[in-house]
Amino acid sequence: xxxxxxxxxxxxxxxxxxxxxxxxxxxxxxxxxxxxxxxxxxxxxxxxxxxxxxxxxxxxxxxxxxxxxxxxxxxxxxxxxxxxxxxxxxxxxxxxxxxxxxxxxxxxxxxxxxxxxxxxxxxxxxxxxxxxxxxxxxxxxxxxxxxxxxxxxxxxxxxxxxxxxxxxxxxxxxxxxxxxxxxxxxxxxxxxxxxxxxxxxxxxxxxxxxxxxxxxxxxxxxxxxxxxxxxxxxxxxxxxxxxxxxxxxxxxxxxxxxxxxxxxxxxxxxxxxxxxxxxxxxxxxxxxxxxxxxxxxxxxxxxxxxxxxxxxxxxxxxxxxxxxxxxxxxxxxxxxxxxxxxxxxxxxxxxxxxxxxxxxxxxxxxxxxxxxxxxxxxxxxxxxxxxxxxxxxxxxxxxxxxxxxxx
Length: 407
What we know:
single chain; alpha/beta; Rossmann fold; 2 domains; eight-stranded mixed β-sheet; five-stranded antiparallel β-sheet; 13 helices; 17 strands
């Protein structure tokens, strides 16, 4: 590879985003056929696709589901596929049981959660206006979508708007924060040209959701001001909707066991493109090296450190293929890859269940199953019996949610 090709490769590596299994673009032609929506709604900041229940004409027993975090406009065909085309056909089962499924998408998934809540509020209002029968609603979302709908319902209550919602649910939602390795966050801005990965990592939604955010201007890693403001706004509307029964599902385990990822190990080493760059799993301590970043065009090196972080990568929680996604893109442009830990924790179980904060090792690794149920901020919850991918629809979690939807 010539010098010019090396330079072009280094500049092009950031043409990706970290996507969840239910919202990622399919890597192969779809073997699964998504039905055509029965209705399409335009909403403030978003839109919705409506799928009637089997053998029905109209909106009955509605289930309103919001899309999660990524960059760009929601693709509800991909979302439907992710929710229905895997091991458990969640949406087909809902429709078979007579529920209308309403998928909410956003014009910009990485926009402020507070802004995208406008789409959720409008979707709930339109659902109420169009529904047939008197069944109360189920409203929730996946990943960030659970935060969007949580805030939307709570705000509607403070505005004395009747949301007619009996059940609120969140599916692997980062109620206490999500975690993207700091080294990966820093690498997105180490790429020498503007790129989609950097825009995603520095977006309003990322700054609101991440437990700690790497600031590309200062180089600091801390609680983003946007997260503080978001949590304050959430508190001002009561924190949670008070009227519906609140359910939470976690893709991580509840026994305090996470993926087998020892702290302080090399997760990914890179050669040829960004030669000598290495990422390490999060360890406890002061000035812990989590990434050694090196590039040739223009030549630069950067050491990325953290202090007083718990061991996030192997924590109990829903996993994201964070290092694997980056490795795929680097490999595409000719890099030599030594990938040792493809999947790491993204939404800790204690965050998805809203039972503990993430600041301390003992809380991050808490055995939720052994805690008093009242410690959780929700009314009922389930943790996966095995570690699964963030927002993955499994038979265990899907059946649990179905059985708790309003009649």
